[in-house]
Amino acid sequence: MIDKLVSVIVPVWNAELYLHYCVDSIRAQTYKSFELILVDDGSTDSSGDLCDQYQNEDERIHVIHRQNGGVSAARNTGLARAQGEWIFFVDNDDVLAPYALETLVNEAVEQNADIVQGTRENVSAYEQIAFQDNPSSFFQKVSFSPEQYVWSTQAEKNRYLYACHWGKLFKADIAKKYTFPEGEYGEDTQYCALVFSDSQLHKILYIDIVVYYYLLRESSACHSWDKAAWFGVVKTLSKSYSLILKNGNNHDLAAKYLQDFFKTYYVNKLELLEAKNVPEEIILSYEKLGKDHLAELFGSKLSLFQKMCCYFSCSHPALYSNAKKIYIRIGRLLNSSMWYD
To answer: Is the residue at 339 inside a domain?
Structure first.
């Protein structure tokens, strides 16, 4: 029987209405060898008291109270405290399938993987969650190197597989080398970029089974968008690209983040052009961000076709948009879906 300690880290802030769903799902795991680190990030409701109550009820639960510093600071506090051989992050309003840790740990050990990635399911209410009592052992398993993983079909369909911390079991020796950037948008994307570019990371295992249930709340950071967040995603991808080159100089891995930067830049640039009353300094700053990466584009590991798409989407977004529509129509007639890939 596998008995590797898993450190489950949950940053907690003003979560009194739903924290019990999260914690109860972790305590109900079929895999018992874990420590649950609840980091109370200066909550102003009863969340801190709830955390203490859980700690008194279960010796596997450890509570850290700290002044409010944001979700990244809370995760970093949990990482510093973690004693396990494996690290798993859960947000305070999300829920784990009862077999999540057992499945992930078993696969990590059997397949000698450094990261095991399960899938997630989005729910708008906890009542929508229907756990499988006995999940089938016959699910898809695919092994990748870090650069293969970010370019995989699975990652292309679901960007969260490499851009987010959800549903990932990390080997602690690698995960604890890095911290989440504090006070920045897309902190988990930058953290994952650093982990993926680590020279000791050799194998990522993807398993096609739901282990994580993500609650969609209107007030959640990832579900709330406004025009002020235009720079958020593109800046995150820009920083992630630079971090990869600085950390491990993995050009194949960096190329994917560079391509995603231009994809996101293009979509947001069209919105920016159509918007009214946008200050000129914002437009100029946004355009500068794109131009700064054009110089790096043609020296990247992207194909010539990918480079041309990135270039025109940045320099001539309206023209590129029209060309893309025509190309897609032709592709449908020819039964081809190739575009930008």
So the answer is: no
Task: Give the closest residue to 174 by CA, choosing from 114, 109, 84, 249.
Answer: 114
Give 169's strand partners. 88, 116
Counted domains in the chain: 2
Same-domain check for residues 22 and 67: yes
| Mean pLDDT taken over the chain | 89
If asked whether residues 54 and 163 sit together in one domain, one would say yes
Binning the chain into helix, strand and coil, the percentages to the nearest 5 are: 50, 15, 35
Nearest partner of 243 among 181, 177, 197, 296, judged by Cα = 197
Indicate the helix (H) or strand (E) that contains 120. Answer: strand 115-123
Asked whether residue 338 carries a pLDDT value surpassing 60, the answer given is no
- Domain boundary at 181, 215, 249, which? 215
Retrieve residue 215's tokens: 């609650």
What average pLDDT does range 165-171 have in this prediction? 96
Q: Which structure tokens are listed for 169?
A: 């079991």
Tally the C-alpha atoms within 13 A of residue 291's C-alpha that lie toward its C-beta: 6
CA pair distance 105, 211, nearest whole angstrom: 12
Query: Which domain does 256 fall in, by range?
Result: 227-333
Q: Quickly state the pLDDT bin for 225 (edges 50, 70, 90).
A: very low
Picking from 136, 256, 285, the residue whose alpha carbon sits closest to that of residue 196 is: 256
* Residue with the two structure tokens 């929508």: 128
Question: CA-CA distances (angstroms) from residue 25 to 2, 47, 135, 218, 229?
Answer: 21, 17, 16, 22, 32
| Per-residue pLDDT at 336 exceeds 70 | no
